[in-house]
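ok here's the first one, seq then struct tokens
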Amino acid sequence: MAVGSLVANAMQPQTVGSIVIDSTQYTIYIASDSTPATQADLAALEVPTATGPVRLDSLATVSEVNGPDTITTSRGLRTASVTATPSSDNLGSASAEVQKAVDAVQLPAGATAKLGGATSNQSDAFGQLGIALLVAILIVYVVMVATFKSLLQPLLLLVSVPFAATGAIALQVISGIPLGVPSIIGVLMLIGIVVTNAIVLVDLVNQYRGRGLPVREALVQGAVRRLWPILMTALATIFALLPMAIGLTGHGGFISQPLAIVVIGGLVSSTILTLIVLPVLYNVVMGRLERRQQRREQRFIERQAGASDTRALTASAAEPVSGPQI
């Protein structure tokens, strides 16, 4: 340790303090007049010992080897960072290529490598937004359960969420916009938007059923009355987002454009499929429940009728037989 300090002092200037001149602070260094310039000069450097000065090469091996120009540590471990700037905006593809290159490297024993920077930040953001998506779906389901007072109908309404995700991903693939954090935020927005159309439709159908209409007829009338309002709502939102989707927002397009594309694609697919698939599912599930209820009521009526006939026969048998008396 002492020899290393002497060599460092001989090779580099030493900081001894600072001075302020004209409101500017300067650092004061002391440099040696005989700084070793070659390997031979370094080997001949005199090192003071208890028996007197001796050459450095008599105490240590002086050789030229490759080594790091700086040493960084993280949590007590030596680390080295390699940066790469992707040539495109597709961070996912760039991260995959970098990961492939890292996997192909033969690392020394005990050394590990992992991706950081923007890739790590994006992975963390995806995880947090994934949790937010699940929580949002749960909250929407709880609200719909309280509204419809049913556990089954809200599940039918949530079918529109995967429909929205399908259209969002399809339009993003067609447009060539890479998947990123703004895209996931757009999917999070879609959960509340697309369920609204389904709620409007099913609520009117339930009102018609409450007036005594069967499931199929209530669906037909409800779909006819809610078709135009649902289409107008979806079209208004889509056309409002078109300027963002085609990149008219300037420098903020890297955030707003993916979000707008995801919302537009999700609205298109969810609106079309909600108007077609949701009534079919509602008819299959609720129609089956309605038919089951009708069979129960029919069996109950038949049992009541059978019990009435039995009581009538018993009453007839219990009446005394009248006739002439002797």
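and now the second one, same deal
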Amino acid sequence: MYEAIDQYVLGLIEKSSPERTAWNLEKTRDGKKTDWNYIDGCMITALLAMADISGDARYFDFARSFIDAFVAEDGSVRTFKPEKHTLDDINEGRVLFPLYDKTGNERYRLGAETMKRALDEQPRTYEGSFWHKQIYPNQVWLDGIYMALPFLALYEQHFGEGDYADVIKQIQTVYRHMRDGKTGLYYHGYDASKTIFWADKETGLSQNFWLRSIGWFAVALADLMEILPEKEREALQPIFRDLMESVWRFHDPESAMYYQVPNLPGKEGNYLESSGSAMLAYAMLKGARLGALPAEYADHGQATFDGIMKKYLSFDADGTLNLGGICLVAGLGPEDNRRRDGSYAYYISEPVVRNDAKGVAPFVLCYTEIKRRQK
């Protein structure tokens, strides 16, 4: 079914525009127009990867026209609200670097400067880690590592002074505080103030492991293995290897996928989840290709990709292809949303959907890595 994936992605493009995308279910379910957001950013990242590996101009042309609808010639970004101080909104900025590399158009450099100024003003914990959002004070989420640090590394690579110390320090802080010594897995969130309702009062950690948050962290590390110079890459490679070795121990033997709450596979209500599984598969495939992981991790990643296809990629009666098994969204708090408490019951209660970019984008990125293997 590999050959059908190209048509699946092109079909999503045909149904999408800068005003409304087929893959951002959080917007479409509320009837909202598309704005500058991480979900579309993830998908545009995947489309640029498809353009690179396939040579098909349709992927690049859509990605460029989509971003041009938001980033003006002067680098201002329509609908971007820097005063919200949310790391999620930084993520879409990472696509500006490959667009600049391909075109040399100054609007993308200036847009990156807009994002960088916002990141420079992001509040930080006492140890120097970015707050996840203004509404989540003193909180570090694994999600935010992906949202901000690859962008920051790409900025330093392209337009900065090549100083990656901030990136390295923030990853090492996550390793120090959020890694569980028994399993090697990472908790979803950490409150440096240890005051928010979902945090342990002694450790500041959330209660459970959430698959997609671990996936975000894994993808961030895999991408940083490609962006960082050798010295800085070597500083993070042991953390990356340890994470991949740890998560592989929790794969489902039949499908090679992973569970929504990865360390509790037999518990009632738990399920094999697509987005986090695809993220881990991509990280393994890319890490092995770059030599940051042992070669067998490419086979592990492909096994997971094939497992996702077998379980969740299916045709409707009209021949439309769909990717299912995607947790729509999960988070922690804020104070006035105590349902999002990091409990097991919470993580398995969120809607499971089809064709949302939080699952489709890493699935497509996996596909591009498999195509690289086949070349």
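notes on #2: The longest helix spans residues 230-248. The chain has one domain: 2-374.
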